[in-house]
Amino acid sequence: MADSGNLGHWEDLAAFHGTGNDIYYDIPALISGGMSLRPMEVDALGLATRGLGVDGLAVAHVQSHIGIDSIHLARLGAHVTAFDFSPTALARLRDLAAQCDVEIRTVQADSQELASAAFAEYQGEFDVVYATIGVVSWIADLEAWMRGAAALLRPGGRLMLLELHPLVCMPEKTDPLVVDFPYVNDGLRHYEGTGSYANPDADLTWSIEQYGWSIGETVNAAIDAGLAIVRLIEHVEAPFDPRGDILVQEDDGMFRLRLGTGANGAPAEPLPVLFTLVAERPAVA
Ligand SMILES: C[S@@+](CC[C@H](N)C(=O)[O-])C[C@H]1O[C@@H](n2cnc3c(N)ncnc32)[C@H](O)[C@@H]1O
């Protein structure tokens, strides 16, 4: 299958993921209740909810994809609204939510537009904005994205962004090492390829535009959108490979990225692979 542009790419992935052809989206386990949020997502939500959990809270799931986490959040008692620009992703989400017997509102939106008048009815409504893994590299204007997150939050509400660390986005491959993605934003980068992060062998061909965003640029975009930083945590290990193609599972079961070697042939120190940013819309502007 061929597509052009980011929306076409995500339409293709939304139609493909969770159809039994990838290891990432285990729909039978989801429907049977055998899947849940990962510990690092639970920890980040703890920070975003002051340790109280999401039960009874209004949660905006931004860039929800087919809604696996939307369903987990709803099962934890959250009132979830899922935002994504892909109509196929939102249709899959509604179907999965029905199969899981949870209610989730869906809104088709470019997440850079959420602060605009077109989405006024959702602004100031949410206790938590939840966005995870594979979000910001698709965004040309990160300040607009952060303004959108800030606009959705009620005063005192918190953004939880659990994202690929920019360092783990940089290598195309490790053997031999090819580094082809920028650490800081230098505008649009064009890439072409095949497959999906959930199944590299998938019969999908893509032509996409992505953007590097450093940790500093991400934090500053949040500050410039009027958010107050609560916590920034960089993770040097993950319980899965969030990119699907580059981390190595080690003897303790955790996945890490090590490049080269350490001193005297010792293993290289692990590089950061994910980060958690929690930021709050101040109660008084
Ligand atoms: C990597 S997925 C998020 C994955 C999700 N954390 C999961 O585990 O399923 C990225 C999502 O961002 C959405 N997306 C990409 N660019 C967007 C934009 N400008 N506005 C809104 N959604 C966008 C895609 O449709 C896709 O569903």
Describe this structure in words.
- This protein has 285 residues and is α/β, with parallel strands linked by helices.
- It has a single domain (5-280), classed as Vaccinia Virus protein VP39 (Rossmann fold, 3-Layer(aba) Sandwich).
- The chain is 26% helix and 26% strand.
- The chain is built from eight helices and 13 strands.
- It has helices at 5-16, 27-31, 39-48, 68-75, 87-99, 142-152, 166-169, 215-224; strands at 58-62, 79-84, 104-108, 126-132, 153-164, 171-174, 177-179, 189-194, 205-210, 228-235, 248-249, 255-256, 274-280.
- The strands form four sheets. A seven-stranded mixed beta sheet has the order 3-2-1-4-5-13-10, sandwiched between helices.
- It is globular.
- The mean pLDDT is 95.
- Bound molecules: S-adenosylmethionine.
Brief sketch in words of this structure:
This protein is an alpha/beta fold. It has helices at about 5-15, 25-30, 40-50, 70-75, 85-100, 140-150, 165-170, 215-225; strands at about 60, 80-85, 105-110, 125-130, 155-165, 170-175, 175-180, 190-195, 205-210, 230-235, 250, 255, 275-280. The protein has eight helices and 13 strands.
